[in-house]
Amino acid sequence: MPNTRSPLYTRLVVFSFLAVVMVVIAILAATHPNMSYASIPTSTPTPAQNDAKDPYPFPTRTSNAASSSVKRVEGVPAKADGTQLTENDVRQYVSTKTAPIGPTLSGNAPTVEKVSLVSSKDASHELGNSAIGLPDTENVYLVVLNGPFHCNGVSVPPGVSVPASVDQMYEVFDAKTGNLVLWGI
Questions:
Q1: Does 1 fall in a domain?
Q2: What confidence tens digit (pLDDT) does each residue in 90-127 have?
């Protein structure tokens, strides 16, 4: 008996079958635990990965049903009387600590290019609208350090390359508490 189905009918059946297979694969990929976004590592290590000797532990996020907040990371020691830190306090601190990105290539202290007391909003603007994590009106110290630096402290997702060294990095400290709230390259 000759085949009475048209080529158009055959193509329709094949494409319908392929569409069903693609939908099944998409559903399996979305529900498989190794394929979910929850399993993709982030650039911020978990608290267990923080090195106790690290002078700049990474900030960690905590969450509850009401909101999510950033745990403050100690940086420049706050003043006991609660007054705002001075530029000299910040300069002294960064000149004696290893930068969070890693040491300089020479092993010497980095050069402090700039220490600016600015609002969180102004620091955000100067850093390309990076989220500072503080209210816009809170004062912060924006510190720019020159290296060059080894990139030992940089953590990135798989597949993203990190340069062996960078010439400059920045840090942002809460001017009242001294906490390191942000750093980057």
A1: no
A2: 999 888 888 888 899 999 989 999 999 999 999 999 99
Domain containing 159: what range? 42-184
What six digits make up the tokens of 169? Answer: 């990095």
For the chain, the domain total comes to 2
pLDDT digits 0-9 by tens, 41-74: 333 333 333 344 444 443 433 333 333 344 455 6
Can you read off the two tokens belonging to residue 115? 């220490």
DSSP state of 102: -
- Alpha-carbon separation of residue 68 from 24, 40, 108, 111, 120 (angstroms): 35, 20, 38, 35, 19
B/e letters for 44-79, b = 16+ CB within 10 Å, e = fewer, are: eeeeeebeeeeebbbbeeeeeeeeeeeeebebbebe
